[in-house]
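Section handout, structural biology tutorial.
Before the tutorial, make sure you can parse a SMILES string by hand: atoms, branches in parentheses, ring closures as digits. In the record below the ligand is pyridoxal-5'-phosphate, and the chain has 390 residues. In the tutorial you will relate the predicted structure tokens back to the input. Do not try to memorize them.
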Amino acid sequence: MKTVYTDNNATTKVADEVIEEMLPYFGELYGNPSSMHTFGGQVDAKIVEARQRVADLINADPEEIIFTSCGTESDNSAIYAAIKAYPEKKHIITSNVEHPAINNLYKQLQGQQGYEVTFVPVDEKGRLDLDLLYKSMSGNTAIISLMWANNETGVVFPIEEIARKANEKGILFHTDAVQAAGKVDIDVKKINVGMLSMSGHKIHAPKGIGVLYVKKGFKFSPFLVGGHQEKGRRGGTENTVSIIGLGKACQLAKETLPVMNTIVRELRDYLQNELLEKIPGSSVNGDLEQRLPNTVSIGFDAVEGESILLLLDKEDICASSGSACTSGSLEPSHVLMAMKVPFKSAHGSIRFSLSHYNTKQEMDHIIATLVPAIEKLRAMSPFWKDGKMI
Ligand SMILES: Cc1ncc(COP(=O)(O)O)c(C=O)c1O
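Predicted structure of the complex:
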């Protein structure tokens, strides 16, 4: 059997249609879109089309789309634009389960520039403490930045409600929709969000291309200062080929959204339910309802995630664990720790993130591999005895 790829929240296969769309622009159509000649103009016209396709995915206007180099740059640009727009406001709100693209920037701002940052906690299912979030909003808040969906657990925050509250208080709201794009319906006009980040490589476009949506009317200061590209909002010659690929990927993502919410969701649920039934001492991390259709994070008591991944890898199955190896010790992820997942199952947590390329046969291969793998590891584990964790 060929590689079973269930690590789509890490990155995705570039769709064949996307590669096809990009190929001419690697070759004969290499002009600079800013050039005055017709040769460059052909590339510019294709970028105009790509911008429209990206805008269509989230119901934005094309001039509200800024192309960046990745989701991280989009996130950083949004935060810096907010603090430049409101220099007198020294308070920022976020959650304690954000991606490092947000988290680490806030820690830096907190340390170096005297910002007070409220890291709103989550409960044991990864749901945001909305009471605390709303109480934290004040006239001194420069920006609220919250992820639409969590990369590890797939838990989805109630972005529409939060955006409404932020708007009522006149606070700028940014959402990191890197994991949500292409998996949930996004309508920026309906939710009235100020800024929104996306990343190409999570939706079957190449790595190294991102998007920042900036609502019309917001005084946006560029993060990368340079030429007139992107209407002066992001300097640097455009990554033309990837932008063209991203445009195609967004068009495809819009078409495959119904598949995500039916076939992919059913495959995910099948995998999840079979594993829970066949493996005692296993449980899902995160809310079962408010969750991306493609993601499941399962904790297996008394085993180590890295050992599970190695056994899966031997069978050509790609997934990821909820741990990060830091300074010689294996720390469970900050997301699972924030959810207060017990240490011994947080350590044995595996995330499967599917795409529409996955099949039921592949899910059966994972189940057939994982059930004996966990039994084997538990036979050696000092924390597992007589069919339960000790
Ligand atoms: C929620 C979230 N935000 C931001 C990023 C960063 O995106 P990029 O890899 O394009 O910089 C990721 C990547 O995994 C992510 O999952």
